[in-house]
Write a structure and sequence with these properties.
The complex is a heterodimer of chains A (about 290) and B (about 450).
Chain A lengths: L13 E8 L2 H6 L7 H18 L4 E7 L4 E6 L11 H15 L13 H16 L7 E8 L8 H13 L4 E5 L6 H10 L3 E2 L7 H9 L3 H4 L14 E2 L6 E2 L1 E4 L6 E2 L16 H4 L1 H5 L1 E2 L6
Parallel strand pairs in A: 1-2, 1-4, 4-5, 5-6
Antiparallel strand pairs in A: 2-3, 7-8, 9-10, 9-11
Chain B lengths: L10 H6 L3 H7 L3 H10 L2 H10 L6 E2 H5 L7 H13 L3 E5 L5 E5 L1 H13 L19 H20 L12 H8 L3 E2 L8 E2 L1 H8 L2 H14 L8 H11 L8 E2 L5 H13 L2 E5 L4 E5 L1 H4 L16 E3 L4 E4 L4 H8 L3 E6 L2 E5 L2 H9 L4 H10 L3 H4 L7 H14 L7 E4 L5 H13 L3 E5 L4 E5 L3 H12 L1
Antiparallel strand pairs in B: 1-3, 2-3, 4-5, 6-8, 7-8, 9-10, 10-12, 11-12, 13-15, 14-15
Helix pairs in contact in B: 2-12, 4-6, 16-19, 20-21
Classes of the chains: A alpha/beta (about 290), B alpha+beta (about 450).
Protein name (chain A): General transcription and DNA repair factor IIH subunit TFB4
GO cellular component, one term (chain A): transcription factor TFIIH core complex
InterPro entries (chain A): TFIIH_Tfb4/GTF2H3, vWFA_dom_sf
């Protein structure tokens, strides 16, 4: 017998956590292309409005991922914000604040945005919704990300991914930058979300509405884009470099690019024998499951 | 058992059955487009969104490509629904392949809504006018009170303490099908559908009444499409905000008067102007378009010994419980009763089914027991079902008895014929008598006449 309460919510009520990349270095680098931040926002706003349109119980929360910080900029459950346009004001405040936090003047390349922080915030929000009772919308996370992966965030991002996997929250990723993101590939692969890098960024709304608007209930009946290949490379814990081969602590599975005497994470002492013959036992290939 | 069922949630079917011209007229209003979109099955919603910015027809094949084998039936349902509601039109190209395209009006309105948002034809009361508005709790209490008063009136006008302003002719319309009066002197009795109606949840009841109200609209000289449009529009107003009645047309004003008696809106008279305040019942209208019911606090606790405790002060609840349970005593906020074989038999005779009673008990379970699974003890639900099946041991079926066949050949031929049609119920070859279902009477007549010649 099914409990009555389950009937009270329709199948397609969803809670969509949208993480938008506001990394100023990224967007200034894209100034010369046709796809500017304002264009990107107009696509996203239309998408958010259409999600809210589909079901009056749908909830959308937007988290801005900046260079130095991240913050909630929109929550459709609060009564003052009925439409996604309300986020603009808060977004502007956020970008200003994010800018003032910037200490260093020069950043090489595009710089990284704080993906780990916003992923954690999204998961915290979802946990809070889970705890409100047995009736809650089905949550999913959508990352609209363009910045390159910050190797320094590797551990935090992976932890967030596994925590999402445990609470059965799929992470969808839509990469708007020029290169693929290994973090998000892994995130979507592990949590059962969709990873997509749109070919034509002008048609972002069409990609969003065709692929990412699909609620979890309908996903059981549809074939959504599947990843062609996933970059499972890990970053080492010591220098945050992305590596193909490395050393792994046999106790806590920490990854290092060079041989150490002592594991910096768990403190286990590594034996001397390995130093003499690194190719035999000390050096292991990273296993393909990314853990 | 006669199968009388109130189809309570087919408002969308009703919309779909409107003639094409009227449907297209409805889609002029962007709020109706929104309400219709929200009522669609999930997959259909996704298709609408997918096609929203595509202006050329899309072949059916390309849409089927993304459907997994498991989801094909769902896909079909979604597409059928879209075509039925004329949200999507089906055309055939030169190669006779089906092509789909969104209804241009519907498409345009949704596009506009997504980019610019919807603007209601009227603004809520500006905050600088100092009129005390009812709080949300007061408003909800008002809505519940009005609705219960209306229901009590509906089932027995003598029971209700308060009078409603609904005209008696209108009340008659609502009562049609729910109450029957054999004699002028006798008080009217609830019919089977009337009993079933009372056990439905508020939203379903509301829709039944609204449906009657709409089908009856033409008689009152109101265009049903206008009425539907206004009702759907009303559901997008903000609960608890006051709107000026000046913004309404005369017809809409008279509709709001009726709706205030049902508890959908509260009318408030200001010094100069009058206002209407939509209640939760009104804003829930578009929710109940989809198969969702609003969450409501339950009040019933059932114990494994068949005793029933209902924490309620409502007269209506007491009346409803009386339909299938023996009410033993009543305290100011508590009704105590028991479910007995006799009380259930009475209910079954009135045409209430076991499933309806069980789902009523489950839906109205007190929060303390609602957490438990099952919320109604299993032995109670099983026993209710068993008692119902006790009554269904004998199945009645209209039939005809044939005897005195002129010869055995004729008898055999008639037997074979009836068997072939699946209508043979009983045969006695010694006495040459058969009993045949009444539905194949004409065919039987025909075969017997031919045999005679």
């Amino acid at each position: 017998m099914t409990p009555v309460s389950s009937k009270l919510y329709t199948d397609d009520v969803s809670l969509l956590m949208v993480l938008i990349d506001t990394n100023p270095y990224l967007w200034s680098s894209m100034k010369n292309t046709a796809f500017t931040f304002s264009k990107f926002l107009s696509h996203v706003l239309a998408f958010l409005n259409s999600i809210l349109l589909l079901n009056q119980m749908n909830q959308v929360v937007v988290i801005a991922t900046g260079y130095n910080s991240c913050d909630y900029v929109f929550d459709s459950s609060s009564s003052s914000m009925q439409r996604a346009e309300c986020l603009l004001e808060k977004l502007e405040e956020f970008v200003d604040k994010d800018e003032t936090l910037s200490q260093e003047d020069s950043v090489d390349g595009v710089g990284f945005s704080l993906l780990s922080g916003s992923l954690s915030m999204a998961l915290c929000y979802i946990q809070r919704v889970f705890r409100t009772g047995p009736l809650h919308p089905q949550p999913r996370i959508l990352c609209l990300h363009g910045s390159p992966d910050g190797p320094g965030q590797y551990v935090a991002v992976m932890n967030a991914i596994f925590s999402a996997q445990r609470s059965m929250v799929p992470i969808d990723s839509c990469v708007i930058g020029s290169q693929h993101s290994a973090f998000l590939q892994q995130a979507s692969y592990i949590t059962g979300g969709v990873y997509l890098k749109p070919q034509v960024s002008d048609g972002l709304f069409q990609y969003l509405s065709t692929v990412f608007a699909t609620d979890l209930h309908s996903r059981a009946f549809l074939q959504l884009p599947r990843p062609v290949g996933v970059d499972f490379r890990a970053s080492c814990f010591c220098h945050k470099n992305t590596i193909d081969m490395g050393y792994i602590c046999s106790v806590c599975l920490s990854i290092f690019c060079k041989h150490h005497k002592k594991c910096s994470t768990c403190g286990s002492n590594f034996g001397e024998a390995r130093k003499q013959d690194p190719s035999a036992s000390g050096q292991r290939r990273k296993t393909p499951d990314g853990s | 058992m006669p199968q009388v069922k109130i189809v309570a949630r087919n408002f969308m079917d009703m919309v779909a059955s409107l003639p094409a011209v009227k449907l297209d007229m409805l889609y002029d209003n962007s709020f109706i487009c929104e309400a219709i979109l929200r009522s669609l099955p999930p997959l259909a919603k996704k298709y609408v969104l997918q096609l929203l910015y595509i202006d050329i027809p899309i072949s059916a094949k390309s849409m089927e490509e993304s459907v997994l084998p498991d989801g094909f039936s769902k896909h079909k349902v979604a597409i059928d629904r879209l075509i039925q509601l004329r949200v999507m039109t089906e055309t055939f190209d030169r190669k006779k392949e089906a092509m789909y395209q969104l209804n241009p009006k519907f498409q345009f309105n949704l596009q506009k809504h997504i980019v610019h948002g919807g603007v209601l034809p009227r603004e809520p009361m500006p905050s600088n006018i100092t009129v005390r508005l009812p709080s949300l709790e007061e408003l909800e209490a008002y809505a519940v009170e009005q609705w219960e008063c209306f229901l009590l009136h509906l089932i027995s006008s003598s029971e209700a303490g308060k009078t409603t302003n609904i005209s008696s002719s209108m009340m008659k319309v609502f009562q049609r099908g729910l109450l029957s009066q054999r004699d002028e002197r006798e008080p009217p009795r609830l019919t089977e559908s009337g009993f079933q109606f009372l056990l439905m949840d508020t939203n379903a009841q509301l829709w039944y009444i609204i449906r009657e109200y709409i089908t009856n609209a033409e008689e009152r000289g109101v265009d049903s499409a206008d009425l539907i449009a206004f009702l759907l529009e009303l559901s997008f107003h903000v609960t608890g905000k006051a709107y000026n009645t000046n913004t309404l047309t005369d017809i809409q004003r008279s509709i709001t008067k009726d709706l205030s008696d049902l508890g959908l809106v509260k009318l408030q008279q200001g010094r100069k102007e009058s206002w209407f305040i939509p209640t939760k019942l009104a804003t829930n209208l578009s929710i109940s378009l989809a198969d969702t019911t609003s969450r409501k606090q339950g009040f019933i606790v059932i114990e494994t010994n068949f005793r029933l405790y209902a924490y309620s002060t409502s007269k209506l609840h007491c009346e409803i419980l009386r339909l299938f349970a023996r009410v033993e005593y009543q305290l100011p906020n508590l009704i105590v009763g028991a479910i007995t074989k006799e009380s259930l038999y009475k209910a079954f005779q009135n045409g209430i089914t076991a499933e309806q009673i069980i789902s009523f008990l489950q839906q109205n379970a007190h929060p303390r027991v609602a957490e438990r699974i099952p919320s109604v003890p299993e032995n109670v639900t099983d026993q209710i079902r068993l008692w119902e099946s006790d009554l269904n041991r004998v199945e009645m079926m209209p039939a005809h008895l044939y005897d005195e066949f002129p010869s055995r050949d004729v008898f055999e031929a008639a037997c074979d014929f009836a068997r072939e049609y699946g209508g043979l119920l009983w045969e006695d070859s010694k006495q040459m008598r058969i009993i045949v279902k009444a539905d194949i009477l004409t065919e039987m007549k025909e075969i017997l006449r031919r045999q005679k010649q």
